[in-house]
Prior knowledge:
Helices cover 47% and strands 19% of the residues. The protein has helices at residues 2-16, 35-50, 64-76, 89-101, 129-142, 158-167, 182-195, 207-220, 233-240, 252-268, 290-297; strands spanning 22-28, 53-59, 81-85, 106-109, 124-126, 147-152, 172-177, 201-204, 225-229, 246-249, 278-279, 283-285. The radius of gyration is 22 Å and the shape is elongated. The protein starts with a helix and ends with a helix. 51% of the residues are buried.
Amino acid sequence: xxxxxxxxxxxxxxxxxxxxxxxxxxxxxxxxxxxxxxxxxxxxxxxxxxxxxxxxxxxxxxxxxxxxxxxxxxxxxxxxxxxxxxxxxxxxxxxxxxxxxxxxxxxxxxxxxxxxxxxxxxxxxxxxxxxxxxxxxxxxxxxxxxxxxxxxxxxxxxxxxxxxxxxxxxxxxxxxxxxxxxxxxxxxxxxxxxxxxxxxxxxxxxxxxxxxxxxxxxxxxxxxxxxxxxxxxxxxxxxxxxxxxxxxxxxxxxxxxxxxxxxxxxxxxxxxxxxxxxxxxxxxxxxxxxxxxxxxxxxxx
Length: 301
């Protein structure tokens, strides 16, 4: 009888004392873009909901070699799963493949939909970027845009190139490397507008880019159709004031939240997945729904 009770005690003790699942998220350029704190919060909330530990890693410069090193370092700690943005599959692919070979399930998110399976990831959470750009271009053209510049803050990022090229299927478009620095974005945008007065539209591939572009438009005194990507308090202000026509919402909180939940389900349900890739966008935010979206997304001032 004592042996039975001891066995029950040991079982309960070790079951109750089991280590929590641990998930690591690695993303690019989180230090300069208001987009990423929302993604991080989504991951933290998901981990809290399932009782898991969560670690968030990024390299502020956006250097892909340094990001690859972060993935390697995370792999060495043997987490229960990894969530990785994939802006440059060539630079990051080998590190992700090594993580998968080490038995770590990986889900890509945000950038790199087309390359996700090639690098060994289980699935991807994010919007089809070319389609998102295409839809933005079609709407901009319907609203009068004819000659545009697309401001790309990360020239290495295939997702942002896809946005610009998708937009260009509907509106004549020149892509400009704006850098990620707000002051430089404003300077380069103002210079582009002054160099070509026929430009009547701008697509800003990120929220801080949108804000800087609006300042450049005001500086030059031009009449420009401004369309943006992603949400921030500044972008919401621009939409509500009429300075920006719309922004494309790819639901960054969902991009942080869903991969953690899916990895948990994968690890606790015999490797089963709830389906294929999860598209998180595109969705339009304009004056008609900006207040409601901002409230629900937590981007009110």
